[in-house]
Amino acid sequence: MSAWTEVKICVDAKDVDKAGDIATMVVPYGIYIEDYSDLEAQAWEVAHIDLIDEALLAKDRNQAFVHIYISPEENPLEAVAFLRERLTAEHIKNEIVTGECHKEEWENNWKQYFHTMEIGDRLVIKPKWEDYDNPSGKRVLSIEPGLAFGSGTHETTRLCLETLEKHISANTEVLDIGCGSGILSIASLLLGAKRAVGVDIDALAVKTAQENGKENGFTAPQYEVLQGNLTDKVSGNFDVVVANIVADVIVMFCKQVGAFMKENAVFITSGIIDTREQDVIDAFRENGFTITKRCTDKGWVCFTCVRDAQ
After folding, report:
1. CATH classification code of 4-110
2. What's the predicted TM-score (pTM) here?
3. I need a surface site. Which of 148, 156, 170, 234 has the fewest CB within 10 A?
4. Cβ neighbours of residue 184 under 8 Å, at least 6 residues apart?
5. How confident is the model over 253-274, as pLDDT tens digits?
6. Nearest CA to 140 among 119, 167, 169?
7. Alpha-carbon span 225 to 146, nearest angstrom
8. CATH 3.30.70.120 occupies which residues in the chain?
9. Tell me: the pLDDT tens digits for 64-121?
10. CATH 3.40.50.150 domain residues, the chain
């Protein structure tokens, strides 16, 4: 079996969240973060134990590491160049090293950090390998993120989920652009939407989203997942269009999304670093959208927009 390439990014611990966010732009199949800056509190929260291995206690608390993994079919040099450019643009001091590894060595590392979460008033995100006692009767989304982005843990995804909850009714049809694991479109169906369509350019993400849909009881035609670039494979109009993707793509997408929105539809966008917020606001204005709500969390921004009167 061909070896994968591990890209290890060393940054100051204070910058690891933003570095991790940038790393998720490089690959759709997940990242692994080592951050020991708050080790004792994390150990207690996860394992309810204050006995920690001395080797871990000896780790440098001022540094953190982001690991990403490049498949044999991809060019790791392009990934490294992109990472250096984006990290430098965000003024994040970094050191990047590469090495070989095999898929089975890393593909399950991230699972130790993914646990059941209650989001908003009505929704719970639960990994397939955990049980959840549901005394309040919330909608439970059982998910296997696999190697596709979207577990609900990231601020951008949580902001989208909390916003979606306010715009879903029995007749709502949802279009999820850059659907990744399918978490947003499947959550919409669990919250009562009539139909959802997810789109992703990555074949692995499409497969993961379809499997997650089946896990939660949703298949075509109620839930469809298309492989395509933005809306090139999409037809019809929707009540809600949600795009949890990077600012550059949102700016470009603003030019075409209106053609897929029903009258009075909402356009929900997230994945926007606050340093790019004005670029997105300008794109909304230039393409006939009015912002009705803005939410933020840890430097990330989520907008809800409507189309201006035609």
Report:
1. 3.30.70.120
2. 0.66
3. 170
4. 150, 157, 160, 161, 164, 174, 176, 198, 242, 244
5. 999 999 999 999 999 999 888 8
6. 119
7. 16
8. 4-110
9. 889 888 877 777 888 888 898 889 888 999 999 998 876 665 556 556 556 788 888 8
10. 114-307
Q: Which CATH superfamily is domain 114-307 in?
A: Vaccinia Virus protein VP39 (3.40.50.150)
Q: What is the pLDDT of residues 197-245, one digit of tens each?
A: 999 988 878 888 999 999 999 999 999 999 998 899 999 999 999 998 8
How far is residue 152's CA from residue 173's CA, in Å, rounded to a whole number? 21
CA angle 230, 236, 239 (to 5 degrees): 85
CA distances from 305 to 15, 206, 242 (A): 31, 27, 10
Tell me the CA distances in angstroms from 141 to 151, 259, 298, one per residue in order.
10, 30, 24
> Taking Cα atoms as reference points, which of 271, 274, 269 lies closest to residue 305?
269
